Amino acid sequence: MLALDHNVEQPSATAAISADAPLRLDGYFCSHAVLERDAVIPVSGYAAPDTVVEVDFCGVTARAVAAPDGRFTVNLPPMPAARDQRLRVTNGKNEICLDDVSVGEVYLVAGQSNIQFSLADSQPGAEAASDADFAALRYFKIPPKSYYGKQHTLRGEWRKISRQDVAMLSGCGFFFGNAVAKGAGIPVGIIDASLGGINLESWVSRETLLGHPAYRQELLDYEKAVSFGWTASNGKLPDLNDKINQGLQKLFPEVPDDGKFEAGWAKENFDDGDWDKMLLPDSWTEAGHNHAGIFWFRRTVDIPQAWANQELELHLGAIDKSDKVYFNGTFVGGMGNSCLWDYWATRRVYPVPAALVKAGSNQITIQAGSMASICTDGGVVGPAEEMYLVRKAAPQAEKIPLAGEWRYRETLDAGTIGMTFMRTLGAGAPQSLHMLYDNMIYPLAGIPMRGVLWYQGEANAICMAKHYETLLRAMLNDWRRTLGDPELEFFIIQLPDYHNPHYFAPFNQWTLIREAQNRVAQEDPFADCIVTLGYGDVVELHPRNKKAVAEAAARCALARLRGETPPSGPAFEKMTLQNDALEVSFTGGKLPAIGTPIPGFAVAGKDGKAFIAHAEVIAENIIRVSAPDVSRPVFLWYAWAGNPRETGLQSLDGIKASPFRAALNDSPEKATAFNLIP
Question: pTM score > 0.70 for this model?
Answer without folding.
Answer: yes
